[in-house]
Amino acid sequence: MPSSGITAVDAAAKGMKLERYASGGALLLRRATSAKLVSASSHLLFRATVLATLALVFLFTLHYPSLLSRSFHLSSSSSSSPHPSSSASHRSLLMSSSSSASASYGGAAWEKEIRRSARPSRNDGGISVLVTGAAGFVGTHCSLALKARGDGVVGLDNFNSYYDPSLKRARQALLASRGVAVVDADINDAALLEKLFDVAAFTHVLHLAAQAGVRYAMEAPQTYVASNVAGLVSVLEVAAKHADPQPAVVWASSSSVYGLNTDAPFSEDHRTDRPASLYAATKKAGEAIAHTYNHIYGLSITGLRFFTVYGPWGRPDMAYFFFARSIVAGEPITLFRAADGSDARRDFTYIDDVVKGCLGALDTAGKSTGSRSGKKSGPAPLRVYNLGNTSPVPVTRMVAILEKLLGKKANKRIVTMPSNGDVPFTHANVSHAAHDFGYRPTTSLEAGLRHFVDWFVEYYKLDVKIAKGARSAADKPAKKKKAAAAMSASS
Ligand SMILES: O=C(O)[C@H]1O[C@H](OP(=O)(O)OP(=O)(O)OC[C@H]2O[C@@H](n3ccc(=O)[nH]c3=O)[C@H](O)[C@@H]2O)[C@H](O)[C@@H](O)[C@@H]1O
């Protein structure tokens, strides 16, 4: 019998040799010996195959841990195209949800990291927040602000390529430097969401992951349904039926739900049943879906209607951002004028003001009243608030401020607003948010755009001298440093 140190190939070769040299009279013995040898060989073959498989699995795990844990995966991919083809974008959403269905999460190290990031550090308790869309513009600022005041934060983001993913990765790196872990996954991945709630007892969900952009909805309608409708349902399902206890949910709706409403300023009491774009329709659908989950499952849900949020680390698909790019590059920009010939106007809202609104909404959310068993102990809060700046500014004025800051004239082309889902003006009444959590926007478009341009020039390493005259008396260099420090600490 071959010893266990001999390979199956050796054993088979020896068996053949023995057979070859056996005499004819010992046929029976030879057959028996041969049978033993074949059996021994297959044993060995089996053992060797198991050993080889184990070795391969070990090597695979060493080289591809991210496929097993799926967390903190850093991609070097970058795309400068703000709007990839609709099919590509939709595919990326679906792929990340379906591929992850078979993936396993966790492992001790992964769970430890999630727990660490989710743990509040405040002496007075603090909250623990799952932030979806954490590598997005508003998500990054809110996550930093929550962490800075001692709350626990775990981020979730699918890093899709709607706009340059390298900017999202840079935001993720900033979050990591402040101790916020961001899981690389899609909100449609229910298994992952459940796992996160099994590992960490989140008290709140700040649901900001969405397909944003008003006009892009005409190019890629399905991505809006996948993110803003199916994705929202996925998050609410897990919050309502799996999390124990249920968290309070605060999520991003949009000023666009006011659609063709002409009463101004827009109040939460106004009609929102005439959306002008599919984007707006999916956000309006989200508000109806929120009502259902609140009604049936007792989930505490707050919808925040954001009004054209802008600022440092912003979204490159938004007009103020790509106008700045085009002005620097000397490329033309197209300005939309309302059908009556007036300038389009927006209630541009600075990111730090919006962050204060989001934290105020989280702090006053009130508890959910349902449980895993499906019973609710009573009605839970269902709220919706405008988070705007309360002073609409013509888009032409926004461009003039950028021109002054960048020291360069824009090459403007003015056209009548095409039928693309856009609305001629937005204007927020924020009295409900002011009353319920002290929301008071304080940043003028001039001051906010200066903060944006400061960041923009530095981030893209542009050879641009920011015009001094564009600074207000309150923004002298010494104070500017302080303001920047405060901004990075709080947002
Ligand atoms: O507040 C909101 O509800 C929405 O605000 C923005 O949507 P929008 O106000 O259309 O922001 P931009 O795309 O940055 O457009 C700002 C203004 O610039 C105008 N614009 C845009 C693009 C362009 O090429 N030319 C132009 O004049 C638009 O008509 C609009 O008046 C965001 O993109 C949405 O995600 C958000 O939900």
CATH fold annotation of the largest domain: Rossmann fold
Looking at the overall shape, the CATH architecture of the largest domain is 3-Layer(aba) Sandwich
The share of residues in helices is 40-55%
What small molecules does the structure contain? uridine-5'-diphosphate-glucuronic acid
* Terminal-residue CA separation: 73 Å
Low-confidence stretches: 1-40, 56-103, 472-491
Give me the number of helical elements.
16
User: What is the element string, with H for helices and E for strands?
Assistant: HHHHHEHEHEHEHEHEEHEEEHEEHEHHH
CATH homologous superfamily of the largest domain, by name? NAD(P)-binding Rossmann-like Domain
Physical arrangement of strands within the biggest beta sheet: 3-2-1-4-5-6-11
Membrane topology: Multi-pass membrane protein
Keywords: Isomerase, Membrane, NAD, Transmembrane, Transmembrane helix
Region (Disordered): 471-491
Transmembrane segments: 44-64
Task: Give me some keywords for this one.
globular, alpha/beta, two-stranded parallel sheet, 16 helices, 491 residues, disordered C terminus, Rossmann fold, transmembrane, binds uridine-5'-diphosphate-glucuronic acid, disordered N terminus, Epimerase_deHydtase, EC 5.1.3.6, NAD
Brief description of this entry?
The protein is an alpha/beta fold. The protein is about 45% helix and about 10% strand. The chain has a 7-stranded parallel sheet, sandwiched between helices. Strands 7-10 form a two-stranded parallel sheet.
In words, what does this structure look like?
The structure is a single chain. This protein has 491 residues and is α/β, with parallel strands linked by helices. The protein folds into two domains: 56 residues; 300 residues, NAD(P)-binding Rossmann-like Domain (Rossmann fold), CATH 3.40.50.720. It is built from 16 helices and 13 strands. The longest helix has 37 residues. 43% of the residues are buried. The chain binds uridine-5'-diphosphate-glucuronic acid. The site of uridine-5'-diphosphate-glucuronic acid (UGA) has 18 residues, from β8.
